[in-house]
């Protein structure tokens, strides 16, 4: 039976500490594809970022932006930003106050901020940061991600207005979509796929929405405890051949 596999990237396809792609994970992906299965990325990363990873692994389909983007067989089906009015409300209430922010408004690993001290307040450097003291977020036609310099203990100081968030680091709140299952539903609809053919792998809290009881769900050994509770099966750590071992265990490869 042809199955449809969806893999998170960070901590699932990659090792948690080094962010390397284990050879065994590459081999598992290759063998799944050889057997005629559909293999896709399911990530919170921006579309362009997730596609770069997919190409590295020989994968041509991607659920990106936490479900707000779907690229199938190399073609973008949709790529949407966060609810713009909610973003404007959030930014309007924190602008010029305690928590400097940056936004990603293009399909590029780049964020814009008006705060000269933004990079002094955060530790992450994954995205290029462009500082422009005259930047006006209200001119944005879409916002894909909002980065806020904020400690977890200060979360109540951020008026999210129902916007979802994760923690990029201990000191950076990342406002981004967290409904990866939306992208899976799009693929299922496109190919008329039944629930019993869906397999998802993940490790983080932003994978919870796609760990549905009707799907085969595999949590990595290094996964968050809350995700492990939702999983049908818990495999080994990402850096201990977790993907490969699970695929062998179930006879998928």
Chart the SSEs and their pairings:
Elements (H helix, E strand, L loop, with lengths): L3 E4 L1 H5 L9 H12 L3 E5 L4 H10 L5 E3 L4 E4 L2 E5 L4 H11 L6 E4 L5 E4 L4 H4 L6 E4 L13 E5 L15 E5 L2 E4 L4 H12 L6 E5 L13 E4 L5 H6 L2 E2 L7 H8 L4
Parallel strand pairs: 1-2, 1-12, 2-3, 7-8, 12-13, 13-14
Antiparallel strand pairs: 3-4, 4-5, 6-9, 9-11, 10-11
State the main characteristics.
4-stranded antiparallel beta sheet; Rossmann fold; 8-stranded mixed beta sheet; alpha/beta; Hypothetical Protein, Haloacid Dehalogenase-like Hydrolase, Chain: A, domain 2; 8 helices
General description of the model:
With 253 residues, this protein is α/β, with parallel strands linked by helices. It has 2 domains: 4-80 and 178-249, Rossmann fold; 84-175, 2-Layer Sandwich (Hypothetical Protein, Haloacid Dehalogenase-like Hydrolase, Chain: A, domain 2). Helices cover 27% and strands 23% of the residues. The protein has 8 helices and 14 strands. The strands form 3 sheets. It has an 8-stranded mixed β-sheet, sandwiched between helices. Strands 6-9-11-10 form a 4-stranded antiparallel β-sheet, with helices on one face. Strands 7-8 form a two-stranded parallel ribbon. A hairpin with a 2-residue loop joins strand 4 (69-72) and strand 5 (75-79). Helix 2 (23-34) runs parallel beside helix 8 (242-249). It is elongated and about 55 Å long. The protein starts with a strand and ends with a helix. The mean pLDDT is 96.
